[in-house]
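Late entry, evening session. Most of the bench is empty. Finally got around to the prediction I had been postponing all week. Sequence below, unchanged from the version circulated by S.P.
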Amino acid sequence: MRVDCLQQTTSGVMKALKVADPKSVWVMQSWFLVQKDIWGVNETKAFFDGIREVNNGRDAFVIDLYSDVIPLWNSTDGFFGIDWGWSMLNNFGGGQGLYGTLPTLLTEPFKGYMQPAKVMRGMGITMEGINNNEYLYQLILDIPWESVEATYPNTAPLNNSATAKEVTGLELNQDPMNPKEHLESFIIRRYGPRYASSAVLDVWTTLSQTVWDCRTGQIAQSKSYLVITPALNMTRPIFLSTDFWYNKSEVVSAWNKFIWSTLTDESRKKHNKWPIRDPVEQVLTSANGKGSQIASTFKSFSEKLADAFRYTTDQLNPESPVAESNNGLATTLTTPRHNEYRSDASSSFRYDLVDVTREVMSAVVLTGLHKELVEAYNANDLGRTRSRGNQILDAIRDIDRLLSTHTHFMLGPWIRDGRLAAKTANSSVVLDPAEQQRYRNYVEHSARNQITWWGPAGQEGLDDYASKEWGGLVKGYYYPRWKAFIDRLTTAVQNNQKLDNEAYLADALKLEARWLNETSDDNNLTYPVEPVEDTIEVVQDIWARWGRIAARLAAKAEK
């Protein structure tokens, strides 16, 4: 690329804009600069030098689109003097995974402001979806009101360090930003003082140091196995990765505390008494002088027997990682608490309960069970293949039940709002009732397509890009796809064959297309728009059923 031609081009564009409108401002994203094979240092400088030929570049503004992961301001000397803004993207496709780069958010904007060119003019957010990781957005919008000098008094001075005036932060009469206090004040405002107990604040401290502390450089939140096409190998690369960077045991421990904060004396008694205790497990523990604590969540007797034996021997071995996690959970369970019933808990409190439980079920339980399913398949073990497959389907049903307790996690409002948007009231076009209904069906089809195929054909490139973990969508779209995979896998083991992946994908594609082409007109097929059950009761049930399994799988994942 000829740099002189490039400079003349951007100069010409800037001059033409000012002729058309003397008050015009050229606003651009920095995203094009990520193509380093095209945009080297010389090319980038020439691009901005051309803009600077008009009013010294004061009539242009660069949005550094993805400052939180792929910053470009620091490799371009602050865009060579052009005004710019620090931006957090965080989210692609409206995904729902807990994800963030909190240490970066707490430091890099301040560094950008103190960059020698001194042309950072603001901060913003450019996420592709809302209703996720809400604290991080609040933080980014609060930081511009913080004192840079007070928060980072040792930051390099502006311009000439020999002549720069020493800054102390006292000039602004403002205290430095305290990250811990900022997070805690957010939680207190979000839940109210009554529900923002010290235990709950500890939960969010742990989550801020795990799910919001991604340092792997991955682009955006991880994709849950739940929402992508099932396969034997579900590993995805760095963009919309299926890897989870955090310590899962720490996240499960935080989840335990979060759920425990909702328990009353009555519900605590209910969930400390596990509904099924395998006789063999009781005999084994009694013989060793230990009490039974294992929750049996398996349907078949043979699976109960096998797991009771394995879990019990793990508990009797104090060096077992599973024993450690189970003992830790038992300690948490017996910690005394005196909470009143949470019937008046805020919608935000319930939202976060759903979101954290969803993360544990998707990222820990489902991922771990899938690994054990594949291990069973590779070992040609029909019994374990069936049992792990059944557990996965049980987990997916419970996830759908969980999500259906809060409107922000439900498919119904999405489809309802899409159909309501299909109006012609302010248009000169007049539709008869039948045409109006077809129009509504078309909009509903588009709404379904956007969160599944993202285009005209499934399983090609961007399918599941904007996937959602929503009640109704999980049961209607993801569950049948997983069942088709598990059925094919089980049949293959039963017949001592390999999985016919091509046939399975054809089955899955038909199931996807069938759901995609359904409408609310089909047999009055509608999805709820109001919560189906009480969030707190459901998360407690899920915790009682899956808590120890989550602890085991989390410990196994850390090996």
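Two things to note before I forget:
Strands lie at 26-29, 60-64, 84-88, 120-125.
The first strand starts at residue 26 and ends at 29.
Will write this up properly tomorrow.
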